[in-house]
Amino acid sequence: MRILVTGAAGFIGSHITLEFFKRGYEVIAIDNFSRSNFYNFKFVREQGIEIIKGDIRDAVFLEKLPRVDWIIHAAALINVEESVEKPSLYYDVNVRGTIILFKKFYEKGTRNFLYISSAAVYGEPKYLPVDEKHPVDPISPYGASKASAEFFIKSFYHSLSDFNYVIVRPFNVYGPGQSGEYAGVIARFIERILQGKSPIIFGDGLQTRDFIHVDDVARAIITIVEKNRLNEVFNIATGVPRRIRDLAYEIIKLANAQLEPTYLPPKPGDIVHSYAIPAKIMNLGWKPVIDFSEGLHDVLKWARSEIST
User: Fold this and answer.
1) Is 39 a catalytic residue?
2) pTM
3) Containing domain of residue 173, as a range?
4) Of 14, 267, 271, 297, which residue has the fewest beta carbons closer than 10 angstroms?
5) Are 227 and 183 contacting, i.e. CB atoms less than 8 angstroms apart?
6) Span 78-101, mean pLDDT?
7) 115 pairs with which residues across the strands?
8) Could you read off the pLDDT of 176-192 as tens digits, one per residue?
């Protein structure tokens, strides 16, 4: 089976690419390298996988690619704060890019499209834990762009008799290879702590998140493809809420640092509590297997190795 992975040099995309490759799939990996870091690029290339440089908005580039059996669409802009400043850019990449990608590969005969969306489409939860039937009500341009792409994908399904989709909504993904300006809270905490600086918490630190390791996310996506579960939406999460303040102290302890968090006013629009119920995907035989403390330890180990090099 031939798989196209977009955003293959990104944090989530690189792990998905490698997981499919290890299981014997033929993988076509593409990325425009605008937000990828060298580790993720090297991580994929060291396994003998070529990443083709190209943009999902470039119809001429997409036309040159072969037909595939599945598209795993991971390419996206993902920074909430940036999306407020540049909403048109987020629409262009996350919505228009998705439409162009779909159109060109549908013309080639590709009929299966797995879209990596985000828990950000839910906005501030109306109830907890969040299931897949929770209202879609984003509170940021980033979340709105992901929700808009979801609606377009579903509209293609309803308009075309031979098109299949899957939408996955990962919660807070962490793991090796997540770094830089657009990283999640775990990567930002670790970066500061290893620099001898206090981790910064916006608000009182009592807000909760559902952290899921990137390798568990990759396995979840492969499970969906191999089970051939079509035209459905899946949360990918652990179902375990963790307080941000507790997270900061756990990383400080793992790093053997003598630090205390710095507290700043909450960011406008920040969600207070967010965690999921992953029962639907667990019914397919998947479950998260990476222990949270072990996962944090692995990220710390990776971050230290990056500093030493």
Assistant:
1) no
2) 0.96
3) 2-177+211-236
4) 267
5) no
6) 97
7) 73, 167
8) 999 766 678 999 999 99
